[in-house]
Design brief:
Elements lengths: L14 H6 L18 H4 L8 E13 L4 E6 L7 E5 L17 E10 L7 E12 L15 H6 L8 H23 L3 E2 L5 E2 L11 E2 L26 E3 L4 H11 L1 E9 L12 E10 L3 H22 L1 H15 L12 H10 L3 E4 H9 L2 H4 L16 H12 L3 E7 L15 E9 L3 E8 L4 H10 L8 H5 L8 E7 H9 L20
Parallel strand pairs: 3-5, 6-10, 12-13
Antiparallel strand pairs: 1-2, 1-4, 2-3, 4-5, 7-9, 8-9, 10-11, 11-16, 13-14, 14-15, 15-16
């Protein structure tokens, strides 16, 4: 059957179908507004000898008397498409207006390329300039730029290969997270960003207020009178959606949250952000072992999804990482490539080790005995650092590790206490190159013990009255964990600084863009 192309780019044999078909059925038609074809689709070569429209941003331009070559990219793929045209077909000096960074719309025929490095190219018959880019001002020229410099122009860094790859992978990981939980029957719950409680008890929170900063109203005690504030109480940006997530789990059984969280920790390290995203599942009727099983399955699913769906971008980042490793001293180089590190997660079951056993291993390790650790392990009760976690994963067990049954004095109030009265049913999942990637626990479901722990830590019971009531009315064993999304992105992309895996990083002294 022969079909005639409509101006909208849809074969007329599909015209009646489109009137009634749901959007999910239209993917195979490659329907695109005004017949625009994404570069990712054009590069497949399925549309050779067809007239198409390509839109994107100029990466490079080469020009001679008889021919102009333009490398165009629209962000749909790492690869550029080559545009070839005869400058004599255009007004004089037209191509003098086109430089790296300019945005163009190209009309032309997709043809098999005669040059090396590309399967197809576009022979352009029409070029429209949407937006010019002055080469004397545009900061992204065709050369290597440092990551530090690119952080200063975060509004433009998505146009680079590195950050284009990171953004695409970030999208795929978001989708994979929702897919995993949806396919397991979990419900997504939106928890509040503004809260009157501190889930972690650390006190490092951003205050939310509408009171005047210079002369706020005071109460009889001379303190700020928050009863005159917008919410009529002291409120902050949330550090976690967990507590509200627990409320939902104790009615809906299995839920997860995926939202922004905020920490007012004055830390300028490569692993800390003031604003970041957290995935926090909460499950009724799960004990600690169930929790560990879910965390392992979840992480393996995400890594496999990345390998299956982001390979082009991962290969680019892996090559970039290998080049960076060559610049490091021999003793600081990673033992695994990026792809090997991802496959390492899939190829190994996670070793499950108690905190107590881990402390014994670390105390007797060579780095500890030779004082190579920055933080030496002397006694039970130490709060493990990244160097300890990485030693357990990379040197001792040589597989991902789940540590569990931590001292209660270094963990949050809501974790279920063990019978020894010294430890709680906490767990941390440790990965190579990064250390802790997931933290979680079985939650304390017993009202008396939870209330006692809140009192011991001096937490205001009034701010958690609703949380305590869930332990009075139909309490149940339940568990959950938190995955810092940017920590996941660090691992999947192999980047060394957490500021480079989030579009607009918020860190001490930096709230630009």
């Amino acid at each position: 059957m022969t079909s005639v192309r409509l101006k909208a780019g849809i074969p007329c044999k599909y015209q009646s179908f489109l009137k009634f078909a749901p959007l999910s059925n239209l993917n195979f038609l490659n329907v695109s507004l005004k017949n625009r074809i994404k570069i990712k689709e054009a590069l497949k070569g399925d549309l050779i000898d067809e007239d198409i429209i390509i839109k994107g941003w100029v990466r490079t331009k080469r020009e001679s008397k008889n021919v102009v070559f333009i490398a165009l990219n629209d962000g749909s793929t790492m690869q550029n498409i080559q545009i070839v045209t005869d400058p004599s077909q255009f007004e004089r000096n037209f191509f003098n207006r086109i430089h790296t960074g300019a945005c163009l719309s190209i009309n032309g025929k997709l043809v098999a390329s005669q040059g090396k490095g590309q399967k197809v190219e576009v022979h352009a018959s029409g070029v429209e300039i949407y937006g010019e880019a002055n080469p004397d001002e545009y900061p992204l020229q065709p050369k290597k730029h440092s990551l530090e410099f690119l952080r200063e122009i975060a509004h433009l860094r998505p146009r680079t290969n590195t950050f284009g790859a990171i953004y695409r992978i970030r999208h795929h990981m978001v989708f994979a997270i929702h897919k995993y939980f949806n396919d397991k029957g979990f419900l997504n719950v939106h928890t509040p960003i503004i809260t009157g409680s501190d889930a972690e008890g650390a006190g490092e929170m951003f205050r939310v207020t509408t009171l005047p900063p210079l002369n706020p109203p005071l109460n009889d005690e001379g303190k700020v009178n928050y009863e005159e504030d917008f919410f009529e109480k002291e409120t902050n940006l949330t550090v976690s959606g967990q507590l509200e997530g627990e409320l939902a789990a104790l009615a809906l059984s299995e839920i997860y949250t995926f939202g922004p969280t905020f920490r007012a920790e004055n830390s300028n390290t490569t692993r800390h952000l003031a604003e970041f995203w957290m995935i926090e599942p909460e499950m009724a009727f799960y004990d600690l072992e169930d929790n560990m099983d879910l965390a392992e399955e979840f992480l393996k699913f995400l890594v496999k999804y990345a390998l299956d769906n982001c390979r082009e971008d991962l290969d680019f980042l892996a090559k970039r990482q290998e080049e960076e490793e060559k610049q490091k001293p021999q003793n600081e180089r990673s033992e695994m490539t990026l792809i090997e590190r991802l496959e390492f997660i899939l190829d190994n079951s996670f070793e499950r080790v108690t905190y107590t056993d881990a402390i014994d291993i670390l105390k007797n390790s060579k780095p500890n005995k030779k004082k190579k650790f920055q933080y030496l392990i002397d006694n039970w009760g130490a709060d493990l650092q990244s160097e300890h976690e990485r030693f357990l994963v990379e040197k001792h067990f040589k597989k991902p590790v789940i540590l569990y049954n931590y001292p209660k004095d270094i963990k949050a109030f809501y974790m279920r206490q063990n019978e020894d009265d010294n430890t709680v049913r906490a767990m941390d999942v440790l990965f190579p190159g990064i250390g802790e990637i997931i933290g979680g626990s079985q939650r304390e479901e017993r009202y008396d013990l939870l209330k006692k722990r809140i009192d011991e830590l001096g937490i205001e019971e009034e701010s958690l009255w609703w949380y305590l009531e869930t332990r009075k009315f139909g309490s149940a064993p339940h568990s959950g964990f938190g995955l810092g999304f940017e920590r996941l992105m660090l691992f999947v992309t192999g980047m060394g600084n957490i500021r480079d895996v989030i579009p607009f990083p918020r860190t001490p002294g930096n709230a630009e863009f």
